[in-house]
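DATA SHEET
Item: assembly model
Revision: 1
Owner: S.N.
Input lines:
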Amino acid sequence: MQLVFLLEQVLNGLLVGAYYLLIALGLSLIFALGGIVNLAHGGFYAIGAYLAVILANHIGFAGAFIASPLIVGCFGIVVERILFRRFYRSDPILSLLLTFGLAMVIEQGLRITFGATPLPFSIPPELRGQVLVGDFIYPRYRLIILGVAVAAATATWFIVFRTTFGRVVRAGVQNPDIVGSLGISLAPYMTAIAALGVGLAGLAGVLLAPISGVHPAMGAEILTAAFVVVVIGGLGSFWGVIVAAMLVGVVRGVTIYFNPSWGEASMYFLMALVLLLRPRGLLGERIEKFE
Amino acid sequence: MKYNLSRRTLLKSAAGSALVAGIGMPAIVKAQADAIRIGHLTPLTGFLGPLGEYAVMGIKLAAEEINAAGGVLGRKIELVMEDSVNPQTASAKAERLIERDKVAMIIGEISSASGLAIGQVANRMKTVFINTGCNSDALRGASCNQYMFHIEAANSMYVEGVGSYLLRDNLVKGKKWYTLTADYAFGHDLARVARNFLQKHGGLLAGDELVPTDATDFSPYLLKIRQAQPDIVASNLAGNQITNFLKQYAEYGLKFPVAGFGFDTVVAWGAGKGNFSGIWPLVWHHLVDTPSSKKYVAAFQNKYGKLPDNQSWGDYNSLKIVAQSMNETKSADPQKLAEHLRKGAKFDVMKAREAYFRSYDNQMVMEMYAVRAKDPAKMKDQWDIYDALGTVPGPTEDMEILAPPKDGTCKIG
């Protein structure tokens, strides 16, 4: 075992953390502030990727990067209005079933429309290339993903914690009835949050399409990882998602260094460990029943 | 609470159940009486789904052509098609196809694990199963049986097929190899065959990494490869993982030559411009220069608007072989079909030489091909991704040298 190689895996793990952060952020947002367990998160991610492939042919990658998340966000508005809204005050299992069904409809819909074969899509030539820091290699595109992930997380944090909009939403999570009695209708705020969360899923789809196969089941591929990151970080915690994403990336990288076949399983072991020692997740809110 | 069943509810539920029942039924192509029913099982969902899609296209085209030419023994072919999903479902559906849908035989499958399950059902129920997509040597070895035939090449054939070109390019003897292996039955089988090949020809294995089939990010593996500085990187991966690997290998800009021992054209088409590189083996590709091959490419493009791939070749030719055999033996009985195939009957499978099933393990003995990825600047369109390197073995060599060694692990009859 060489220390410098291990260090390289750790640093790369942080970079991969940005990858996990992007896919988990939208999910965390919708769960924390919308109260919906969105199993269709992977489906919106896939829609974002497919839209990117289609739009990139007409308006280039930059255009697709802006347009695709916006369009997916609009889907989010429609889905929230028609579907999510009915289940805010219901048994959580209903929203779980709903989004599970939605996920399957999206996956099969994509398969029927585009076929099951992966659509070709590459990193645009201007964004290719690698950066060498000493002997460590970083693809330029991954650094861009890191940048966008940080920007998205910062923007989300700002919206939720530093604006009036965010304040109303957080109040609505704590006690929707009091907010209502103050004369504020929560409905448009919920729609906006859903649009934001779903739009973030679409953004992840656009960014990861050039380095992952674009096929109908791609949503299912990342969904479990997204959930694991959210659970480790703590349901309802914003900073938790960030910390968890980095942690999962690093743990996975180090595990693959020593024993690759445990690489994917490592995040589940980590989750089990965290839940045993700290059921609320790393930075989540205290759950009275378990502690 | 008393439940009132109104007429409206009754009509709605009846319509609903009819709809659900329709979805639960297999897809039947041209249902009619006195047709010869052939079952088709292939994964349409999951990581092999893209290949299953082409398998369906191939076999449907074959059925159409056969029926247009008058069918088999004056009867039409009727395909009963199902999604095999996973080994348990494949096993259950194979039984259902034979018992309930009364198919004469089954064609298809891509996953070696599901192929094994179907093969066992076929053996138990004495129905012929032609495997069109499972590569595992084990299916031709310890798990073989007299009713399971293989038109798809075995891992040994793929390794020998691409191996001869790697030897020619001087990429084997004394060279450091680094392999990524899909962590399931197929991958392990392929890695074993590849390791034997390397040992036989003086190649050195600097590292072999097991990649779980649900891994989507290859960056830690790519870093390990870079740290090891091998002479060549080889893939023992399958399906969509090859696409992801190719994309990310290009992303990291690693300069080591790439090769693979398992490959499907479809996953390389999905890799995107500038990402596909290396030398890869195929059981057939659209550039093969024989009259029947060109005819197939034209017919496929005519019907579907796209080029055929290697998977569709397998399912298409299986049905054609079945039709031809049934016509020759003047019978649709699976026993007679099995006997006919095991006698070494020769078939035109769109290659330069005719192929036959060898009786040792029911593996089709035939030529293999290798292709080299094209320089992106020379690609005419998004499907023109490789150049044909050539045919293996040479025209005067016995085709059986590619096939898995007859080491007695297979005990048929």
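QC remark: The first strand of chain A starts at residue 130 and ends at 133.
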